[in-house]
Specification:
Strand content: 5-15%
Number of strands: 11
Helix content: 25-40%
Radius of gyration: 25 Å
Strand order of the largest sheet: 2-7-6-1-5-3-4
Structural class: alpha/beta
Oligomer: single chain
Distance between the termini: 61 Å
Number of helices: 15
Amino acid sequence: PIDASILLWIVLTGPFRLYYSVMGMTPKASDIWNIVVTPTPLALETLSSMLPFRQLIRGLIPTALCLAVLALALHRFGFEGGISLPTLSAAILFVILYLYRYYGVVSLDTIMASIKVLYEFFKETRYYRYSRVSRSTMPALPARPLAELVNVLLIIDESIRADYLSINNPGVDTTPFLKSFFDSFPNNAFNYGVAIAAGGSSFLSQITILTGPDDLPDRKLDTLRRPTIFQVAKAAGYRTMMLALQDDFPNVAFGRSDMAYVDEFMHQGHDLAPLPMNVDLAAAAFVRKRLASERGLFIVLLKTGAHIRYETRYPRDGEHCIFSPRLAPREALSLGRRREIVNSYKNALRYNLDGFFRALFEDGLIPNTTVVYTSDHGQSFQEDGQIESHGSKYLEQALVPLLVFSSDSWVLENLKRPCRYTLSHMNIYPTISCLLRREPEQKETRGAHQSIVTHDEIEPQRLRYIYGGLWDGTPVEPPMKDGRVVLREERYMY
């Protein structure tokens, strides 16, 4: 039994810690699947390039030292006389703290974390057997000269709640640059107000936007079968790029085969800026430079946004601490600090979101480019006494912005202007598809959800968001009146 326990420890914790040492993040179930389906020669070549001897040793040291402490404790106290659990725990805790301090790697006992990853892998395996529609089965559009091609940029932000933006609520003063930009370009910038997210988690909303399912939850598994928006872009002759600054790809719904339609992929934010709080601002400057100098480019940018902890998303000097009192660094989101939580969030929006658009539109509109902007989900601020900021049933977690900016005359002629009806994430996939194909949506060929690139009137739609799983989540229908979502009255938000 002892030999079996030690072997189990090595099998579960060794690879987990080694992966973290090399990749700088904990493994996911999709990583196991990618290892399983990768051809052996390619896998060995990749491993040999990523695992120099020093990294190999560094990744296995935590397991080796923990095993040494365990063996020493067993030898010292023996089995027949019983094991002193406090002494053994203290010894292992010492090793954990030592490793955390001096090696900066995952030093906690990772057996449970490893088991969880394996459980998720086996639970998700059934989703990997579905085949997505091939690009070869999609109708190709006539080739257009490079000079006629334009650019499309889709931005999916992180944790941006629509009614906390100045353009939707002037009382908060969080996006002064964005407000002034709308005033300066009234014929090129369009605010569709408060929209409804697919749900309260990043994975759920990102996959919904990129694959366009007919309904939520996606019990028909459209997200695994329908062509991704990158396939649509390639069929239309675009060069494609993804900047996944949260490193969420590939995954169970957007796998390695889908990544084949992404010509350029970037996920290391530190390649853009050394400080995490400045990565989004650097990304804005990067994509602007690419878009201003190229044609026929389709980019999906997944921002780091204003995700908790909010106080790490903006500099701590006075210039950027507009709203106070605010949270201290690493301060817990306790129920008694709601005002401080809200102010820290507003400071993060002013620096991260408004700063992002300031960098993106530094010189005005980007030539020959259309930008579609939204967020993955909104945020809760303890309106019902809840601690969680997202991922559950509350309406505020589903409130996201929807903006469009364009310098393309064709888009300006065919884009439907904002109306009084509330839109949702479900409208984005058909809209991007129309932008890429440069074909306004026709009523007779419309899918389950309407594009805003159309000559038809925008119609009210049935709105819902879900929490839980993408394929088996619980649907919630927000309160509606005359086709528009009804926001709850906030007692002390501002």
